[in-house]
Amino acid sequence: LLKNNVVNDLVLLETMMDNVTGRQKDTCVSVRMLALRGLGNIASGSPDKVRKHGAKLLASMVNGMDDKDDPHNLVALEAMSSLSKLLDHVEERDIQSMLLHIAIRIRPFFDSEQPELRQSSIVLFGNLTKFSQGDGEAFFEQIVNGLVTLLLHLQDPKPEVVKACKFALRMCGPSMGCEGLCEMFLNHLREERSLHYGEFMNNVCKHLMQKYPEMLNRLVSTNLFYFKSSWVDIRAAAPMFIGFLVLHVDEDHCQQVDLDQLISGE
């Protein structure tokens, strides 16, 4: 019902929204999950009301992501999916105060064993970048924190996760402060285009080390974490990523890398 604009004609929306919001404290996980789905559907049924009640709806989604009694993350999954729908209609001032909290909260889901959680969290991260201009430096940190993961998951075994990573990286490109990198993401990560991963990563690392050589150790350390990934293609991609980084960094920055740590793969 909330997905249909009939709620506007019947002047029912506010009453229904209050009732559904109240169900977020229900003891049943499925009820809490469906409550969030209903609130997310307002983006389809009454987008104007999303603008009016944006702060309240966003708070519901953040609460859903922080649900402590959700062992299979069903509520968190619905919260991320619904939040992506709402973001097209909320006022920027309503999302700004929650932007970093959401970005930090969803980051662990990028590596979830559940492909739906990987996909939904990565798509949401891409959608959040639309609002990053107001807090550029802090959100840039979040992009850097997630960059290695997004690039490695271009080798994810699930096509829907690969598609999500392409979207998120295209969205992150303009905030990276590197025109060459942004162009690469836009040109090579189009949904319909197949990707020559090795060649692509070689060029990505070249741009990264030209623009941000001081990030070398940080990028290497994050890649080391994936040497023990349960996904074989991602395990293979991580050392290749490090190899290209070291190949393109100038000598002055090479001492950043702890060779003992790198050789032991830990």
Automatic annotation (TrEMBL):
One GO location term (cellular component): cytoplasm
Cited Pfam families: HEAT_MROH2B_C
Domain Maestro/Maestro-like HEAT-repeats: 22-264
Tree of life domain: Eukaryota
Annotated protein name in UniProt: MROH1 protein
